[in-house]
């Protein structure tokens, strides 16, 4: 971006918004908006507390388990749907319903099914993340050039080797895009799950701080969470870029 | 030039001993569309035979049936006397759109057939190295397909087919996605490789000039449903320089005769 011919660095807009936040906070217009400097200070103290570390660990644990299931199931189902019209007809409608459905509404039902603990949160992460992975994988598999598949077969790759040597690799850019989008949704899932179950992990902390109007800690928690979600997404995006570079011509 | 259409039916009943690939009564139906109708053909070993015809005559379908990539509705293909039930190591395919793995280097692409056969890394790289040199791509071993031009990509496809040391090479319009000047050079190189490798080539093209220039035998297929309309053996002196061949009267007459025969199929 350039303003009056001067090149403005990329993060400049973020700094400007931070400044606005600080000024509004210092003016004490609302207790909801404490100055950013206080929030940052709160964040540094927060991450050193045992409560936060335990909460972060629980949250990360639920998130990773849920994502692992979502990736395995999502890629498998996506490959099945991409390869076999029967599977596509059988599951297509459900995947499309679930990918756009407000899944938060289902969490209370999940609580009845899986109890008020981590299992519910893991299932919530799974349900938030899996559908987009299925859809993207399916699209990737269907876009694999027919000739590439025929090439694999004619040079002796049959059965599983056709998948491991050709089809999955050729669909990798789309599969990774699906996983990245799934991760972003999974972060939402873990927080919503924990908020509704409300006695574990990050959800518990959010509940605690918002109920006590401890806005400095509340915002600190939010910023840490956002940064983590963006960081995860950036890592996958980085892998994606490398893969797409090789897949540039298909 | 020799027109052996009449002799072809005789060959169908008495298989010639030197035929590497025999096609017997091949029919192919897609739903209710008839693509190929009772094709009987012999492909002599060590020769380059071209399948030529108007678009939609089923020439690529026939090639893929020979490759074992798609099943025939009825009829049989035998390679070295053995019936074809699927792809096999005695046949190698060169694809119209190259079908290179974009995530793999030239070296890995060329060695891919050997990799699937379970040949050890050093050995397959040595073989791949030889064929990369033979198609004129030395120094490009570690490049990726998107870093190469269309012509160079197809050279990779050709090297991959040579590397598996198959008896029969099946080429599906290999030069159609290559620009004109590169194509000419490529055709000359192909002729040199045919001479060098002593393999059976089956070549699909829609270019009459290309067919006459490259082939020992040209099979002309009629429009849908595809049938053998004519078999021609252009008798051209291959020892002459490429430019002399392209000005040769026999070459020009053959091109003209094939065009006269095919003209009625073109809208």
Automatic annotation (TrEMBL), chain A:
Its main location: membrane. Signal peptide: none annotated. It is found in: Cell membrane. SUPFAM superfamilies: MetI-like. The chain crosses the membrane at residues 62-81, 93-114, 120-141, 162-183, 189-206, 218-236. The keyword Membrane applies. CDD domains: TM_PBP2 (cd06261). It holds the Pfam family BPD_transp_1. Keywords: Cell membrane, Membrane, Transmembrane, Transmembrane helix, Transport. It is a multi-pass membrane protein. Residues 56-236 form the ABC transmembrane type-1 domain. Belongs to the binding-protein-dependent transport system permease family. This is ABC transporter permease. The lineage of its organism: Bacteria, Pseudomonadati, Pseudomonadota, Alphaproteobacteria, Hyphomicrobiales.
TrEMBL record, chain B:
GO terms for molecular function: ATP binding. InterPro entries: AAA+_ATPase, ABC_transporter-like_ATP-bd, ABC_transporter-like_CS, ABC_transporter_ATP-bind, P-loop_NTPase. Pfam families: ABC_tran. Keywords: ATP-binding, Nucleotide-binding, Transport. Residues 21-248 form the ABC transporter domain. Belongs to the ABC transporter superfamily. PANTHER family: ALIPHATIC SULFONATES IMPORT ATP-BINDING PROTEIN SSUB (PTHR42788:SF13), TAURINE IMPORT ATP-BINDING PROTEIN-RELATED (PTHR42788). This is ABC transporter ATP-binding protein. It comes from Ancylobacter oerskovii.
